[in-house]
Amino acid sequence: MSDSVKIVASNRKATHEYRIDERVEAGMVLHGTEVKSLRAGKANLREAFCLVEGGEMVLKQCHISPYDHGNRANHDPVRVRKLLLHRREIEKLGKASAQKGYTLVPMKIYFKKGKAKLEIGLGKGKKLYDKRSDIADRDSKRRMERADARSGRDD
């Protein structure tokens, strides 16, 4: 068995919309046709979110397309999926997400050692000025790297 990680879907807007403070890896409870769809790369995390319900962590609004070759036993694309975490982790993340402004954001779905995993980020929503400052920092860093590269070529 290889330890390789195959990323199926990622939430690219998550780092733009939220400041991620902590990341946690969780297992997912899936049906057989969901696993086959994930292996085909048919998942979408754009509208998805995580929350604690009844002492369990669940993933809602994650769209996993029905399997192409599935029959009437195919799954519901946006069903609520249970996440597998230790009780202490669930309690810790539940308390943290109950604080003002914090939310549990699904970051990416991937396969690790043949098992489907979800990376959850504990994030706080960014304001518009935070987003602007991040973009400005990224641009200035890019300009400095270009200037360093140019000065290195002249030698």
Question: How would you describe this structure to a colleague?
Answer:
This protein has 155 residues and is an alpha+beta fold. The chain has one domain (5-126): Small protein B (Small Protein B, Chain: A), CATH 2.40.280. Helices cover 32% and strands 37% of the residues. The chain has helices at 14-17, 32-39, 87-98, 128-153, and strands at 5-10, 18-28, 43-44, 49-53, 56-60, 63-64, 81-84, 102-112, 115-125. The strands form 2 sheets. It has a 7-stranded antiparallel beta sheet with strand order 1-8-9-2-7-5-4. Strands 3-6 form a two-stranded antiparallel ribbon. The model has no long low-confidence stretch (mean pLDDT 87).
Write the topology of this structure.
Elements (H helix, E strand, L loop, with lengths): L4 E6 L3 H4 E11 L3 H8 L3 E2 L4 E5 L2 E5 L2 E2 L16 E4 L2 H12 L3 E11 L2 E11 L2 H26 L2
Antiparallel strand pairs: 1-8, 2-7, 2-9, 3-6, 4-5, 5-7, 8-9
Give structural attributes.
alpha+beta, about 35% strand, about 160 residues, Small Protein B, Chain: A
**Spatial order of the strands forming the largest sheet:** 1-8-9-2-7-5-4
**Can you count the beta strands?**
9
Amino- and carboxy-terminal Cα gap? 48 Å
Uncertain residue segments: none
The CATH superfamily is: Small protein B
Radius of gyration: 19 Å
Query: Biggest sheet, in brief?
Result: 7 strands, antiparallel
Number of helices: 4
Structural class: alpha+beta
Provide the β-strand percentage band.
Answer: 35-45%
| Helix coverage percent | 25-40%
| Named CATH architecture | Beta Barrel
The CATH topology is: Small Protein B, Chain: A
